[in-house]
Amino acid sequence: MNQADNQPRVDLVASCALPTPWGVFQMHGFEEHGGREHVALALGDISSGDAPLARVHSECLTGDALFSLRCDCGFQLEAALEAIAAEGRGVLLYLRQEGRGIGLINKIRAYKLQDGGADTVEANEQLGFPADMRDFRIAREMLALLGVDAVRIMTNNPRKIATLEQAGIRVAERVPLQVGRNPYNDHYLDTKRAKLGHLFGA
């Protein structure tokens, strides 16, 4: 089986306008072969000109919708949309891979282990999972369907850059997205830097 056979497949199935506090985005719905659904929020003409500002964001129900302070996800989501709106052009991919790919219920189990003293990596491993199970290759397929082959990526995670580049997306620039640090997620962010290689400051 060659690499193309392993590449995730996705179809662009529906689009509409989505008014937000930061502007009116175009929301594009994608269906992955296998059933998962993903969305992209685009603003302005992203298929021509210089590489647009972009964010590849993995679903985090607790942070994105329930205002959890245990992570920085919700803060990053809002900051990314605000930055795209300020530029007037860009795209946010929202990928349905909760809890670094382990799912919502297992994420709750991992949080319980963290309550007992485990860090975010140890908790996943104690449940029998790798530290990070996410697959960012689907982002390449989504961007291709939107006519985007290069991005200025908003991330602190070098794995995203490596994965996008391996999939054929040119990363023209990394734009740091350091927001939302608070007493509840200090240890979490420090662990992401120490064990997962995330880039926070100098």
Automatic annotation (TrEMBL):
Name the SUPFAM superfamilies for this protein: RibA-like
List of catalytic residues: 132 (proton acceptor), 134 (nucleophile)
Residues bound to GTP: 55-59, 76, 98-100, 120, 155, 160
This protein's superkingdom? Bacteria
Cited CDD domains: GTP_cyclohydro2
Q: What is its EC number?
A: 3.5.4.25
* GO MF, any single term: GTP cyclohydrolase II activity
Ranges for domain GTP cyclohydrolase II come to 14-176
Q: State the family named in the UniProt similarity comment for this chain.
A: Belongs to the GTP cyclohydrolase II family.
**Name of the protein this chain belongs to:** GTP cyclohydrolase-2
UniProt lists the gene as ribA
